């Protein structure tokens, strides 16, 4: 009997898409889990090869191919990811998760769907992750943290315990959130910022301590 492998496509052939490809390949090196069909991308030519895998079409590829195929939306910007996911919802897509083998997760971490966890990520205990989330390389998430749908946590960011990162927030590279803070919906925390008090919805906050500089 042959080994069963789940078909999967990566939606987005940019930098994050290539990183997700490596996650899937790393998982396959331990256990043959994924049959990687290639990339879906509206901006790339069909038939083009990226890191050895083809661009198989644009988002309309799912019209006739959505059954029995898993999908990962590998787009770093939360707002663009949101728009793409809403388009894919029209095709009744099966979203799957990609977790690098080097990531550390306790049994008490709960995951939604289309969650991407890159190399070196640490998730401690009693953490709740929504759907369509990206946790970039070497980020650390403390106990009892809640991260809602569509958030992006950039490389080497640290979010300490009992914090709440609300829908669509983008937590910058190397940024730190102390314990018991909230980051509002669709807000952006700049790279290297230190969040010591709650950040409202829809702002960009930078600095040490992080302060809102722009509302959108």
Characterise the protein shown here:
The protein is of the alpha/beta class and 216 residues long. It folds into two domains: 6-96, Rossmann fold (3-Layer(aba) Sandwich), CATH 3.40.50; 98-202, Hexapeptide repeat proteins (UDP N-Acetylglucosamine Acyltransferase, domain 1), CATH 2.160.10. It is built from three helices and 24 strands. The chain has helices spanning 15-30, 62-65, 78-88, and strands at 6-11, 34-40, 49-50, 53-57, 70-73, 94-95, 98-99, 104-105, 116-117, 122-123, 128-129, 134-135, 140-141, 146-147, 152-153, 158-159, 164-165, 170-171, 176-177, 182-183, 188-189, 194-195, 203-206, 211-215. The strands form four sheets. The protein has an eight-stranded mixed sheet, covered by helices on one side. The longest helix is centred in the N-terminal third of the chain and has 16 residues, at 15-30. The model has no long low-confidence stretch (mean pLDDT 95).
Helix and strand topology:
Blueprint: E1 6-11, H1 15-30, E2 34-40, E3 49-50, E4 53-57, H2 62-65, E5 70-73, H3 78-88, E6 94-95, E7 98-99, E8 104-105, E9 116-117, E10 122-123, E11 128-129, E12 134-135, E13 140-141, E14 146-147, E15 152-153, E16 158-159, E17 164-165, E18 170-171, E19 176-177, E20 182-183, E21 188-189, E22 194-195, E23 203-206, E24 211-215
Parallel strand pairs: 1-2, 1-5, 2-4, 5-6, 7-9, 8-10, 9-12, 10-13, 11-14, 12-15, 13-16, 14-17, 15-18, 16-19, 17-20, 18-21, 19-22, 21-23
Antiparallel strand pairs: 3-4, 23-24
């Amino acid at each position: 009997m042959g080994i069963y492998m789940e078909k999967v496509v990566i939606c987005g052939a940019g930098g994050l898409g290539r990183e997700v490809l490596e996650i899937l390949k790393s998982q396959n090196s331990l256990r043959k889990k994924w049959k990687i069909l290639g990339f879906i991308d509206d901006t790339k030519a069909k038939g083009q090869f990226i890191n050895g895998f083809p661009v198989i079409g644009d988002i309309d590829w799912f019209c006739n191919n959505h059954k029995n195929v898993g999908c990962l939306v590998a787009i770093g910007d939360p707002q663009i990811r949101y728009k793409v996911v809403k388009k894919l919802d029209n095709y009744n897509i099966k979203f799957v998760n990609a977790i690098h083998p080097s990531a550390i997760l306790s049994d008490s971490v709960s995951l939604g769907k289309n969650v991407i966890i890159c190399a070196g990520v640490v998730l401690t205990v009693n953490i709740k992750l929504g759907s369509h989330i990206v946790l970039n390389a070497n980020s650390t998430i403390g106990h009892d943290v809640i991260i809602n749908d569509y958030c992006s946590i950039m490389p080497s960011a640290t979010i300490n315990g009992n914090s709440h990162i609300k829908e669509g927030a983008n937590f910058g590279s190397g940024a730190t959130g102390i314990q018991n803070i909230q980051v509002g919906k669709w807000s952006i925390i700049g790279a290297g910022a230190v969040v010591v008090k709650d950040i409202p919805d829809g702002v960009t906050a930078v600095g040490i301590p992080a302060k809102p500089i722009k509302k959108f």
